[in-house]
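pasting for ref
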Amino acid sequence: MGSKGRVLIMTLGVAVVALVLAFSFGRPQVTTAAKYPEFKDDVIGVELYAEEGSDDKVKLVEMEDAKLAAKLVSYLDQAEPEQPPTSWPWTKHYVVFKVKEGEQIARSKEYLYLYKDFNPEEPGYLALENAWYRVPPQFNIMLHCLTEYRNATGEVDPDDAAFLKEYGWDVLFKANTMEGKLPEELIHNAGDFPVVIYWAYNNELNKDVGLDITPYLGKEVQVNLYKLEQPLPEFMHPRRWTGRAVVVKFEGEIVGAWLDAGRHDAFACSLKGRRLEEVTGKTWGEWLAGIVNREDPLEKRLAALSPEEVIRLFYQAVGNGDRRTAHAALSRRNLVGYLFNNMDNNRLYNPSFSVNDRDGLNNVAGAKIVSIKEFPPQDGDPPDVKRYQVAVDFTFRRAITAESGVQVRFLILRQEIPGLGWRIEGLGTGP
């Protein structure tokens, strides 16, 4: 091949690479010369960065949604001129606005933004061109939420929004839409993943607004998850701003709706702001008695054991890899933690035990009890609670938080459900 042919091929190759790169990185980056007061009505998106070290920044949010952007701007309209604290030892953030300029999208300059990502309810501060401003908590909370709600959109089902509005709740954004099948029945068997408890619990809250998912058990439904503008009721402090609304639909009809609090402990209240105990008139244990399968052989076996026998059965099951028995030895309150601990907030609940057992029970290759010692009750302990110190000789598959050998664990056992014996409600490394 001649030199001209080689040059032509190389030129075409460079052109193809350039086109690929252009499509890979999206639209060309254009910076607006306008100041915030001049472009605020044309904001259609936002980027949020966190400072890493002295020179690096990591992008936390890239949102392009005119409706969500309008919400953020409306919160900024409420900002008041105020200097931030003279010392800021926490992470510094930067906000970039995306601005519609004719047929193109331009980026603003980076605006220094100070807020505590571990407590977005506290005051935040944004440095605009002319001064520092103290922004309302809603601005912090919305930006903070966008760091994890990857599918957030301002496109909201109008029927859902209207239904929530009837009870005083305004949608901030739609966090996600999911489809799946409801359980066949709302009865929980010993050792099962507690997804049935999730649906049974929230259906009680659902009934508080005249709805019921029972006729739709075993059927495919659509679930819309919404972030709310308003905080949850006062009794949810300090997690009031974590609130979401769950709307369940069957063939386009709303058949379920309630509030939850997201990751770690999602159970919250009905749309009327009432808790399970208020709606049902029952305690947690009394309510559970109506949704557990008392005829389950494993349930019967555990119901006949003393507290120490439950502890021995639990560690025997852990050491033998019998996960079902190990989980059955835990209280239902303890099991519910598997639904929400370390949950991706784009979900309603974790998909299985493995999310939290991966570095826990599943990491134990062997467990043999060395000793069990009962502690005297602490002040305020009810008669249905007992405390134990247990020394266990563990063999771990991987050294994560401890090496193999004798470890001390502190257990709290409770008679959670009347007539069904003792279960492990708390398990930790300290009393």
